[in-house]
Write a structure and sequence with these properties.
Blueprint lengths: L2 E5 L2 E4 L4 E8 L6 E8 L6 E6 L6 E3 L7 E6 L4 E6 L8 E9 L11 E2 L3 E6 L1
Parallel strand pairs: 2-11
Antiparallel strand pairs: 1-3, 3-8, 4-5, 4-9, 5-6, 7-8, 9-10, 9-11
Length: 123
């Protein structure tokens, strides 16, 4: 069974940077896409960024485009989300998610989720 565990985050100042990590276990990491999502208080969960199983395709939400970077190290079973120039509106619980790679799945659902980690940006 796939398990995901986020780390990093915490309380940061506006304008600062932070890096979130997602440790993957239970299956072969390189067979899975990885995504980062976030949910702010009173709002629906939204996608922040995603990266394909081999790192060849990346997606960024408009809200973080240009000030974020998603990456992965398949040899270490870990993925990262770098967030720069943080804003108070980036405050949310951030979730790591995984789904089978495109050639291994039947739909685009994100099947596996971490427990989430809080990022709070103070102004």
């Amino acid at each position: 069974q796939v398990q995901l565990a986020e780390s990093g985050g915490g309380l940061v100042q506006a304008g600062d940077s932070t890096r979130l990590s997602c440790t993957f276990s239970g299956r072969t990491f390189s067979n899975y896409d990885m995504g980062w999502f976030r949910q702010a208080p009173g709002k629906e969960r939204e996608v922040v960024a995603s990266i394909a199983w081999a790192g060849h395709t990346k997606y960024y939400a408009d809200s973080v485009k240009g000030r974020s970077a998603i990456s992965r190290d398949n040899a270490k079973n870990i993925g990262y989300l770098q967030l720069n120039s943080l804003k108070p509106e980036d405050t949310a619980v951030y979730y790591c998610a995984a789904r089978p790679a495109v050639h291994l799945r039947t739909n685009g659902d994100w099947n596996y989720w971490g427990q989430g980690i809080q990022v709070t940006v103070s102004s």
